[in-house]
Amino acid sequence: MEISLDKRAVRQIRLSAQDAIEEGDTETLREDILEAFTEEQVEEIERRLDSGDFYEFLTEMLDEWSGDDVDELLELMDAQLGDIGVDMKFDKKGARVADDEDDDEDADADDADFDDDDDDDDDADDDDEEEEEDTDDV
Asked: What average pLDDT does range 66-81 have in this prediction?
């Protein structure tokens, strides 16, 4: 079985893992990882687990995690799921790159808004020039 996590899900896991590193609490991280998977994916994973409990699987995985490296967590998740025949597809660095790209897109959007404002000012200047021309005729 192959499971692909989208960039949003990977980003959420990364953010949650970073919070877990800082706060030393993995409860929210476990919930966020669980939410990254669809209900159908969770059911398929549970069919493959001896215990049949994905939540317990995540608890054991997080117990194995050193708790100080986000990439290590993603690698551990990939390895643990691989052991039960689930092939994870996600770019371990992709979410970080996507964040940078999103920031660039936001900056471009801000620039576009700024440019639009400039265009409005130019239009107002054009109106002023037309009014000046009208007064010259009088």
From this structure: 92
